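Archive transcription. Copying these from loose printouts into the bound notebook so they stop getting lost. Printout 1 of 2:
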Amino acid sequence: MTTPGSDLAVTRRLVIPAGELAERFSRSSGPGGQGVNTTDSRVELSFDLARSPSVPDDLRARLLERLAGRLVDGVLTIAASEHRAQLANREAARVRLVRVLREAAAPPPPKRRATKPTRGSKERRLAAKKRRGDVKRGRGGRFDD
């Protein structure tokens, strides 16, 4: 669990200082009774991924490529408004930011090595096709040989 105002540890190589995060507060929609109209509980957490000095260059390239659809001018913005308390929404936004960055920073899966079917699997496949053909032929009908 992170606390608002503390650094975010995304991976061992990537720790985001709290000073690089920008928070904006606004009125949240949804439940809250009379207080919903007066409390700025919705949180928008922004992180300038393209210009952040804390992101290693090789990791920055991967993050920018994988998050291209979510970035606006290199800035990643996460909104949280599911809680009624501003502090809970701040925490939710930080947790979500870490999750998004961690998933995007994960190394790509290893390349698949092409393999050929074994002789046994080829024989089993052909035997199954033969049995299926025999079943269909045994049904009779107009097209019987």
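Printout 2 of 2:
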Amino acid sequence: MGASKKRKQRFLDSHPQCFFCGEASETVDHIPSRECFRNRIWPEGYEFPACRACNNAAGPLEQVVALYLMMGNHDGERPTTQFQKLIAGVRNNNPQFLPNINVSANAKKRALPLYNFPHPADEPVANAPVAELPDENRRAFEAFERRLTCALYYKHMGEILPPTHMIRTFRVQAIQKSADDLIRTAAPMLPNGILTRRQNTDIGSQFFYNWYGDETTRTFVFLAQFSLSFVFIGVACRLENMEGGEDYRPHSDDIGGSAGEDVGAGRG
């Protein structure tokens, strides 16, 4: 057995259950997916034990989210080759998730004031880089966010998220003006700040987050940002501790397989 296989087996031996559903672990899952990072160079410490079914089911939707994370990034570091491969992969596997780039000038004019995006005054509004996300896109993002919630809960709370726990997630593009208020309000309440890294490799500020976990109620909250792309909030708590909205759903919904239904094959 090679060194890589031995490391994998030691990891699975010390983490015998899938972080997501609790069944026997068979694979090592990267969360967030390696596709979400430039040149697929991901941060250390974000490998999780997973059963084969949970790992495989996530791939297609993670590919979709990775495409939008790179498409929505405004730090000027888009890796062209990887980006084109993601477009081709989504077009081949799940074309219903591709954005609509034929947005009318009037629709772009209505959208621009919502963003911290300096569109040149002498440039026609019709040329603004605004795309419309399809409704199906919400399902891909929600599946991604709920898996991320389960993974970070497992990492920082030291246990598998119970099926009876309720999960609520929310997302906003980093350049939306509402993102500034969201971060300013939420971040001070989440005292544990993490900037993910990789030893001997500068991966920049591609994935960072704040989190808080209550040991008594087993409530977990995080606010994460991917470069200058998207900001995510996730909450996991017991039924009796739900606050702030009616759009919670139990983790048992995820374990039932709803997150990966009706999509084609893809890479995780």
